[in-house]
């Protein structure tokens, strides 16, 4: 058991170290673009999750699917608005 824990720790550490090294190799613009994609995914995901919860409460399974679609679309519109706003500031 102790050997397994040691091996698992070593593998996890080496994985995170290699990911960090790759992040350092990216250019500044690539890092910015990656952050933008993460924000977009977060905004759409939160919208879809919120819509699914609300839809499930109001209409069961079918309502959850409809709510997730509507919430995801709303999140995408919100993301588009925020990006447009940021472009205006530049």
How does the SSE layout of this entry go?
Blueprint: H1 2-25, H2 28-89
Order of helices and strands: HH
**What is the number of beta strands?**
0
Helical content stands at over 70%
What distance separates the N and C termini?
A: 56 Å
Rounded to an integer, what's the Rg over CA atoms? 20 Å
Q: How many DSSP H or I helices?
A: 2
Beta strand %: under 5%
Structural class: mainly alpha
Query: Mean pLDDT, as a whole number?
Result: 80
So what's the overall shape?
A: elongated
Tell me about the biggest sheet?
none
| Low-confidence parts | none
3D structure, described in words:
It is built from two helices and no strands. It is mainly alpha-helical and 90 residues long. The protein has a domain at 28-89. The protein is elongated. The chain starts with a helix and ends with a helix.
Short description:
The protein is mainly alpha-helical and 90 residues long. It has helices at residues 2-25, 28-89.
Supply database-style keywords.
single chain, 90 residues, mainly alpha, 2 helices, elongated
